[in-house]
Design goal:
3 strands; 7% strand; single chain; Arc Repressor Mutant, subunit A; mainly alpha; 65% helix; 3-stranded antiparallel β-sheet
């Protein structure tokens, strides 16, 4: 693959993305931030699921899967883990026993508040090392990146397929 300035920039973005996702500092940050008030860690899907349930003050199981854009069986496994930890509870609706409502426990609400406070604390620590003008630009660029992600996957869904990288196009 011929390296152009654009390719080099895309490569740097890709490297930074990989480090954010998988790097040692990111793992330490997740372990510190994504934990209940007693310090027991949760994984990212558990946090996302718990947040959705807490912020909606309870949800039907099917709505959890739809809100997180995940398979219903994946939502069920996440809810199983949260229920085992006493963060949510499930109950069948009396008016229609086919539906199961998931509601947060007090400990689940406290855990989301604790994680939100930790994330905000670390975000302030991280971003205060960046000049204000650069923070503004970073926010714009992060929003543009998210829009780009949304658009790529919306296009793929509309076209009914997922684009795959051609063989041998790794940037380095």
């Amino acid at each position: 693959m011929r390296h152009t300035r654009t390719n080099e920039t895309e490569y740097r973005i890709w490297q930074a993305w990989s480090e954010l996702r998988r790097g040692a500092a990111a793992r330490r940050l997740r372990k510190s931030v994504l934990a209940d008030p007693e310090g027991r860690p949760l994984d990212v899907p558990q946090v996302d699921t718990l947040r959705a349930v807490v912020r909606n003050d309870g949800m039907l199981m099917g709505d959890v899967a739809r809100a997180l854009v995940i398979d219903p069986s994946t939502a069920t496994r996440a809810i199983d883990k949260l229920e085992d930890r006493g963060l949510v509870r499930r109950e069948r609706l009396t008016e229609n026993a086919r539906f199961i409502k998931v509601t947060p426990t007090e400990h689940g609400r406290e855990t989301v508040a604790h994680i939100d406070a930790n994330e905000w604390h670390y975000m302030k620590l991280i971003t205060r090392r960046i000049r204000k003008a650069d923070r503004e630009k970073l926010a714009e660029l992060m929003e543009a990146l998210l829009d780009g992600l949304d658009n790529v996957f919306a296009d793929e869904m509309a076209n009914g397929h997922q684009e795959r990288a051609p063989a041998g196009t790794h940037p380095r």
